[in-house]
Amino acid sequence: METIRTDLLVIGAGSGGLSVAAGAVQMGASVVLVERGEMGGDCLNYGCVPSKALIAAAAQAHVAQTSAAFGVDLDRPKVDWPRVRAHVQETIARIAPVDSQERFEGLGVRVIRDHARFVSDREVEAGRCRIAARRIVLATGSAAAVPPVPGLANVSFMTNETLWDLQELPSHLLILGGGPIGMEMAQSFRRLGAQVTVVEGAKALGREDPEMAAIVLDRLRGEGVTILEGETVSSASQQGSAIELRLSGGGSLTGSHLLVAAGRRANTEGLGLAVAGIETTKTGLRVDAGLRTTNRRVYAIGDAAGGMQFTHVAGYHAGIILRSALFGLPAKATTDHIPRATYTRPELAHVGLSEVEARQRFGGKLEVLRAALLHNDRAIAERETAGLAKVMVHRGRPVGATIVGPQAGDLISTWALAISAKTKIGQIAGMVAPYPTLGELNKRVAGSYFTPRLFENRTVKAVTRTVQRLLP
């Protein structure tokens, strides 16, 4: 067995692990990277990248259904599923070189493609290698959580990992789970021509602002997606290619395919964590504010850290780790400035406190600003006026924002920056946005903060009249 000594050992070659490895080796540290699966992790191969490629394909199919309003008549789209799959795979292939083993070895990282497990508090075995590291980073990501539904184990269901192996477009896709993944895939497959039914035990998009989520759900239902809320599956079975879900309410559903999108669980099994003195929680590894585990030499980032499960969070965590593990500087991870987005059409994005959370914290000192896309000229021209921006403001500073509408995932970046930099609302209102753009929505909602202060203020009007009389 080969013995390797290194400054930094990274376990997991997803977004967070690759960012740590690349940053550390380029700053002079010796780095070993261990990955048992595909380079690029879940995001590149099974998550963000393929799902957004599918969403883009579905958007093209949907054009024919909406073009008549623009005076353009198109024939009914013909969806060629093998070519849709080819588009998804081509998208992955174009991005893959950035995450490849060859690139990281070119940077100077030792890459080992095998399963890793702790054999002591600072040593890990991977294949025929024993690695002793000064610091270790666990970036092992997460996988789809499979609910304990009776009979489900005997059904040919899909998760986000196996969805991309579909050989044909489903005739009727059943989706278990009404979160972001479930809703994105529901709309995409419906637009591509499948019948789609979603079963959600609570509220679909239940983590989001109810008012904003309702706009998205209304659109999906309008496009023909059936969404059953407050329904749980009591059992699952399969006869031939037909999958049946029996519902707790007494009804049943039959479909050709089943996608399980009922949440995710951190990948922590098989790592020998007990040997290294690393404790786990219900959501992942136990970490402190600096992302250290209960073993001071070991950090956890991204989904493995048990918090927000987003690729951009893993990248943010990587910066925290580099500061702490390489230079010994204090660094803490926070979440109040971290945005999230659901890439349905319209998109739904959020950062900071929700309206409910902000009211609980600030009470009557909170102001909620609103601006509807109904009055945005670009949205009107493109017939995409369903949506609005909602910004929570406390003492002149934004503390949270939610946007629903086209490109909401891009528009939310303005508010993520504002919260991160503790920017005053007046600075956003003073921004000049090009006309006509959706970006004007952010300026409009910020400007509404001053509407009652300037245009509905008697003192301001009195001063204006006085000044006008005195001016030559």
From TrEMBL:
Keywords: Disulfide bond, FAD, Flavoprotein, NADP, Oxidoreductase, Redox-active center. Pfam families: Pyr_redox_2 (PF07992), Pyr_redox_dim (PF02852). Residues 338-441 form the Pyridine nucleotide-disulphide oxidoreductase dimerisation domain. It comes from the Bacteria. InterPro entries: FAD/NAD-bd_sf (IPR036188), FAD/NAD-binding_dom (IPR023753), FAD/NAD-linked_Rdtase_dimer_sf (IPR016156), Pyr_nuc-diS_OxRdtase (IPR001100), Pyr_nucl-diS_OxRdtase_dimer (IPR004099), Pyr_OxRdtase_I_AS (IPR012999). Residues 7-317 form the FAD/NAD(P)-binding domain. Its cofactor is FAD. Belongs to the class-I pyridine nucleotide-disulfide oxidoreductase family. This is FAD-dependent oxidoreductase. It comes from Salipiger mangrovisoli.
